[in-house]
Amino acid sequence: MDNVVATAAEAVADITDGSSLTVGGFGFCGIPEAPIVALVDTGVRDPETVSNDCGGGGVGLGPLLAHDRIRRTIASYVGDNKEFARQLGRHP
């Protein structure tokens, strides 16, 4: 089975609304930036993410968070992410 793709858009093409995503990286290192941006471009909504953190400032999961696309997240560290805090306060 050949699972190598040429573009980030191809890598995320099969992800649908409500999917569960595990996202690698630690802090702002080793994050799959291009696939995350490509996922935003697809318009996919409501993924559940599992990651070290929820990104921020346009880095990591930040683009998905900034577009209010993450339904639920499981993270070990959310730090000083103002957008995360704002959205958390909006959802009980």
How is the secondary structure organized here?
Elements: H1 8-12, E1 20-23, H2 33-42, E2 48-51, H3 62-66, E3 72-75, H4 82-90
Parallel strand pairs: 1-2, 2-3
Can you tell me about this structure?
The chain has four helices and three strands. It is an alpha/beta fold and 92 residues long. The radius of gyration is 13 Å and the shape is globular. Strands 1-2-3 form a three-stranded parallel sheet, with no helix packed on it. The chain has helices at residues 8-12, 33-42, 62-66, 82-90, and strands at 20-23, 48-51, 72-75.
What are the defining features of this structure?
single chain; 92 residues; alpha/beta; globular
Content of β-strand: 5-15%
Number of strands: 3
Gap between N and C termini, in Å?
A: 44 Å
Q: Indicate the mean pLDDT.
A: 90
Summary, kept brief:
By secondary structure, the chain is an alpha/beta fold. The protein is about 30% helix and about 15% strand.
